[in-house]
Design goal:
There is one protein chain. It is elongated and about 80 Å long. The strands form two sheets. An eleven-stranded parallel β-sheet has the order 3-4-5-6-7-8-9-10-11-12-13. The protein has a two-stranded antiparallel ribbon with strand order 1-2. It is 31% helix and 15% strand. α1 packs antiparallel against α3, α1 packs parallel to α4 and α3 runs antiparallel to α4. It is of the alpha/beta class and 413 residues long. The relative contact order is 0.05.
Length: 413
């Protein structure tokens, strides 16, 4: 009975949301029609008077504010799929192209001032109270620099939103937004067609930002999944992705969002055929994401801090291009013998194993080995062949993690 009432409540909520959204769109479109009429009225002034931009500004400022208010409200509803809203966005851009560029630049500067973002410069970075060097970050207050900006670092400014005008910075190739409180991205973000790297680690995204799915140029994406129910199946559209990091940062790092129960990963992840590096961190997985086993070009795989999974699929070890494999499952005690297929591995991390498969001795190229080996008895659970293998790795100056390193001298003696 209660489930039925919940369904009714959700239906009413969605209907209300749609009505509110359509009302805002009508208001925005009426404002746009007025502005277009103003543009046609001042066509003569535009051709014969140097002050035509000021004329348009004066006549349309009030209506433009209505459009911005409507679009901001629609963004808060996460209403991304309405064709009429997309039309509104396009119309706004056309009018802004006719009007002085300083309108949107001034709005960006006002937003930066309100959020106490300093001018673009080298700024000191401190970690745990100690000086940790300098980074080039902030928001430029110079028009020419802003118009030609390619990298933007806005990490750790406690930002709750990005303004619509951010989509005008179309030369951007890298944006770093980690350690903020951003809940969504404006639709205009989709216009950053040259963007290659986006970092949204440690934010509070309420839904996956759909504008990201329209940026086909993306090669590296880091996103906070803490409050997400799922990654959309349309992620396959980002077919140039080489690096994908899906993080649910630990609860002790933030104080503004709950820890998630789970975040569903779609099968369409397997269609990201250019993916070289995949990280899935601090997420609760009910089963190993089988689509990962189809990413044959993967060179780095890191699945960490999963507290439910107890075993690894044999198919995982068909990914023979892997150079780095980090699997830290708390309940993982054994590893399939097929791990010996990964002869190109340079870095291997396997957590809480009680016994190693014999085929691990095939991994001669290892440069770093972490076994969380306080669980493994230093002598009893190693075969003679494995001991010889460890001796060779030690001779080749392989790095061993601290929990295992203390046993090495005993093992190789």
């Amino acid at each position: 009975m209660f489930g039925f009432l919940k369904d009714i409540a959700n239906s009413v909520k969605e209907t209300t949301k749609q009505i509110e959204a359509e009302s805002q769109i009508k208001q925005a479109n009426r404002a746009l029609e007025y502005m277009y009429s103003q543009l046609s009225k001042v066509a003569y002034e535009k051709l014969n008077s140097p002050t035509w931009k000021e004329v348009i500004r004066e006549r349309t400022a009030k209506e433009m504010n209505k459009v911005y208010s409507a679009m901001t409200y629609l963004d808060s509803l996460h209403y991304y799929d309405l064709e009429s809203f997309l039309y509104t966005q396009k119309a706004v851009d056309e009018i802004l192209n006719e009007v002085d560029d300083d309108i949107w630049i001034e709005k960006l500067w006002q937003w930066a001032d309100e959020n106490k973002i300093p001018n673009l410069d080298f700024h000191d970075v401190f970690y745990e109270g100690y000086f940790n060097g300098q980074v080039y970050k902030g928001f430029p207050r110079d028009k020419n620099i802003l118009m030609n900006l390619e990298e933007l670092d806005l990490s750790s400014y406690q930002l709750s939103y990005l303004p619509y005008e951010i989509g005008r910075l179309t030369k951007l190739t890298k944006i770093y937004l980690s350690y903020n409180k951003i809940t969504s991205l404006p639709l205009s973000f989709a216009k950053l067609v040259n963007l290659k790297e986006l970092n949204l680690y440690s934010n509070c995204l309420e839904i996956f930002p759909n504008p990201i799915l329209k940026i086909r140029s993306l090669e590296s994406l880091t996103i906070d999944c803490r409050c997400l129910d799922s990654i959309p199946s349309e992620i396959y559209r980002l077919d140039r992705l080489k690096i994908l990091r899906l993080y649910s940062c630990p609860i002790d790092e933030v104080d503004f969002a709950p820890y998630p129960t789970r975040c569903h990963l779609p099968n369409e992840l397997s269609r990201l055929i250019n993916l070289k590096s995949l990280s899935i961190k601090n997420m609760i997985l009910d089963e190993f994401p089988s689509m990962v086993c189809k990413l044959t070009n993967l060179q780095e795989l890191d699945i960490d801090d999963s507290k439910r999974l107890e075993e690894l699929p044999k198919e995982l070890f068909n990914l023979t291009n892997l150079r780095t494999l980090k699997i830290n499952f708390w309940k993982l005690k054994t590893c399939p013998n097929e791990i010996g297929n990964l002869i190109n591995l340079k870095t291997l991390k396997l957590g809480n194993l009680t016994k190693l498969p014999e085929s691990i001795c095939n991994l001669h190229e290892l440069e770093s080995l972490s076994l969380m080996s306080s669980v493994i008895h230093p002598i009893r659970n190693f075969t003679p062949k494995q001991i010889e293998w460890l001796k060779k790795l030690h001779k080749n100056e392989c790095y061993f993690d601290s929990s295992f390193k203390k046993y090495i001298n005993e093992i190789i003696s």
